[in-house]
Structure formats: C-alpha cells, structure tokens
Design a protein that fits this description.
Helix content is 39%, strand content 20%. It has 15 helices and 14 strands. It has an 8-stranded mixed beta sheet, sandwiched between helices. Strand 2 and strand 3 form a beta hairpin. It is globular, with a radius of gyration of 21 Å. The structure holds adenosine monophosphate (AMP). Adenosine monophosphate binds next to helix 10 and helix 12.
C-alpha cells in the first residue's frame, strides 16, 4: 500500500509518501509546500534517491498545493510513482477531534460534517486541515481519506484532570475543557519507550513524555493511556513555548487589553504569536538563536531559557505526583531531541525524585537514535526518543484502509 500523509497549516502543506509492504515501511518521498496563497510560493521536494528540488510557481490554495504535490510525486525525473492512482489512501493530521473522536476515523461525509462543527475549537488549524481533505476528495475521488486527530491520544483523561474549574454548564453547553495536543507524538514516543524498556527487562507503567519544539507539551502516560497533559482547550495552555505564553493568570488578559487598548482577539493573538521565549527575550522563538544570544551575554535570552527550563521541570514534578512516581521521562521534538543544553538545564535540578542525570551521556546522545541519558544507577530512565508523527498517521491510515 502507498499512503500519502498530509499535514496542512494555514500557508503550508507538509507531505510524506510511505510504502507498506510485507510488514515493513519505507518513505518514498517527502516535502513541503510553502507560502500557499502568498507571493513566492514553492514546493521543496525530496524524491527519488533523496534528490532535493525546489519548484517555484504561484499556489493559490490547498487544492493548487495538492496538484503541485501530485505533480512532484509523478514527475518523470524526480517522481516516485507513475500516477496519482498509485496512492492507496490519504492520511490527514487533524488538529481537533473534540469529544467526537477518540480515535482515527475514515473521513466519511458524516465525520467531515462533525469536524466542520468543531472549527471554532481550532480556528487557525482546522480550516486548512479540512481544506486539504476537501482537495483530496475533489482530485482523487475514489481514494479513501483517514483523519488522525492531535487530541485523540489524550481522550483517556479522567474528568478530574480535563475539567476546568468554571461553571459546569460551559462544559455541557460549549464543551469547554482540556483536550491536549501533540497526541500522535506523545503516543509514538511513549510506545517506543515501553518497547525500549521491555527489551532491557523493565516493565514500565508510568511515563512522562516531554514534546519540546516550537510548540511544547508534556503528558503523563499510565499503562499506555494519558492521564494528564499540559495543553488545554487550545494549544495555548501549559508550557511556555516559542511564541505562546503557556500558563498565566487569566486576569492578565483583561489587564493587557485595558492597558494597551487591544481587543480580546488581538490580546489572545499576542499570547499565541508574540509571547513565550520570543516575547520575553525580544530575540527569537528559535532556541538556537536564543542560546547564541545568551552566550553573548543577552540577559533576556538567558531569562527566557531559564524560565522555559523551570516550567518544564515544574510540570515534570507535578506529573510525578499525578502518576505516583515515574519509570521514565522522555524527551522529544526539535528542542527535546537536539538541545543538549536545554535538557541539562531541565534535568540538573531534578535529583530529589530518584532521577540521576548523566551529563556525559547527554552530551554524547546520537541524533536520530534512542539514547539513555540517565546515570547507570538512576532509578528512573531518562530517554531521548526521536518522534515520528507522520509514521503514526501512515500506520493509522494503513490500519483503517488496508483490504478495503
Ligand atoms: P519542532 O517544532 O519540533 O520542529 O522544533 C523546532 C525548534 O527546535 C526550533 O525552534 C529550535 O529552537 C529547536 N531546535 C532544533 N534544532 C536544535 C538544536 N540543534 N539546538 C537547539 N534547539 C534546536
């Protein structure tokens, strides 16, 4: 089976083409369409033999973007399939499943309608996600579409964990509650952690997964099921992020609005796009830039990094309490996988909980592989595990569509 995984953003479309054969999988091609609907749009495509090409040209919307992806995948020079009919199924990353979806589903008309009703829960991501499903249905009518929800893995949370302490009717009437995001990543790395630990004779039941990237979240996973996670109704809650504030006193919102004369939507936009490490440092949302600035003596960059680490540590501590201990802490995402210094900042002070960090192992952890960065006598394993959200989406799509 050949499965095309699609991850649509407001002006971008990431894609990866997988082949599943005899129980194994291979990535045939991948790429990203950038600047959809803007000037200077292009496709960055990595196809046959890993050769990279950039295809420039106007791309007005997601249907156009998908046409370009199909053209790249079937190109006679760098394409990998002979026609669009070679694609057996599409797998879509969909931001919000709300309470309607606690697992991946085929995008039937009925499910698509349910998703459309949830657009207000993810107004930035849901329209492009669904535009991409519409484009596939238009351009490849007979090919099935699977929806894999960012929220689904977190649907096992208990009410005590997911309810907000606001009037109960807001939950019953408007479904205002914690949902959590990055579910495919938390699912993948917690699964990989369990496999890794079972191989070395351990039987882990309590895992804390830290997905630290431009967007960051933490989950407490017990016996393979999420019992709590840091993001909320939207991805704004929880950890401090690249541009998102994360947790703050909700009264701050009105205070900012009154002081600056901004309306509610503008204020929330500031919390989503101009806050986090970018807002505190005034330098960048990128941790590489921040580290470089901090090393050159920029105090606000140093402060932003310190705040980020402190907040991750506090969440890890609270999930120790939620899980009644932990067997493993997992780091993943662009920062979690690559930033040796950030892992050290977070972990150095965690010793009181039976976690023994090893600075040398942390330094020598190989990129792209599972690494143990705890001391040999640490009760709790600390693992760096590369995430692979596209693979999870491809596997789910395979399971939903194989043989159909
Ligand atoms: P993600 O959203 O998971 O792709 O992560 C993106 C973030 O990872 C970027 O904003 C960078 O700040 C961070 N990152 C990627 N590589 C490194 C690295 N080598 N060192 C520090 N941070 C990194």
């Amino acid at each position: 089976m050949t499965i095309l995984v699609l991850n649509a953003g407001s002006s971008s479309l990431k894609y990866q083409l997988f082949r599943f054969e005899n129980g194994a999988h291979a990535v045939l091609a991948k790429g990203v369409v950038e600047r959809i609907g803007l000037n200077g749009s292009f496709v960055g495509h990595k196809g046959k033999d890993g050769a990279e090409v950039r295809i420039d040209g106007a791309i007005a919307n997601h249907t156009d973007a998908l046409k370009k992806v199909f053209a790249a995948l079937t190109d006679k020079d760098y394409g990998v399939i002979s026609g669009v009919s070679d694609i057996s199924a599409f797998g879509h990353r969909i931001l919000h499943g709300a309470e309607d979806f606690n697992a991946s589903v085929l995008m039937t008309e009925e499910n698509l309608q349910k998703c459309r009703k949830n657009i207000d829960l993810g107004p930035l991501h849901m329209p492009p996600n669904l535009a991409c499903v519409d484009a596939c249905r238009e351009l490849a009518r007979d090919t099935p579409n699977a929806a894999v929800f960012d929220t689904a893995f977190h649907s096992t949370m208990d009410k005590t964990a997911f309810m907000y302490a606001i009037p109960y009717e807001y939950y019953t009437d408007y479904k205002i509650r914690k949902y959590g995001f990055h579910g495919t990543s938390h699912r993948y790395v917690s699964g990989e952690a369990i496999k890794y630990m079972e191989k070395i004779g351990k039987n882990p039941s309590r895992i804390i997964t830290c997905h630290l990237g431009n967007g960051s979240s933490i989950a407490a996973v017990k016996d393979g099921k999420v019992i709590d996670t840091s993001m909320g109704l939207t991805p704004l809650e929880g950890l401090m992020m690249g541009t998102r504030s994360g947790d703050l006193d909700p009264a701050v919102i009105e205070f900012i609005a009154v002081k600056t004369g901004k309306n509610l939507a503008e204020t929330i936009n500031i919390l989503n796009k101009k806050s986090g490490v970018l807002g505190v440092s005034g330098v960048s949302s990128d941790f590489r830039d921040l580290s470089a600035a901090a090393e050159e003596g920029n105090e606000r960059a140093e402060l932003a990094l310190g705040m980020f680490a402190y907040r991750v540590k506090k969440y890890i501590g609270s999930y120790f309490a939620a899980l009644n201990g932990a067997d493993a802490i997992v780091f993943t995402g662009g920062i979690g996988e690559n930033s040796v210094k950030m892992r050290e900042r977070i972990l150095k002070g965690l010793c009181g909980l039976g976690v023994k960090f090893c600075a040398e192992r942390n330094l020598s952890a190989k990129r792209g592989e599972i690494s143990e960065i705890n001391a040999a006598d640490s009760e709790i394993k600390i693992l760096v595990i590369p995430t692979d959200e596209e693979l999870v989406i491809a596997r789910e799509t395979f399971e939903l569509t194989a043989g159909k």
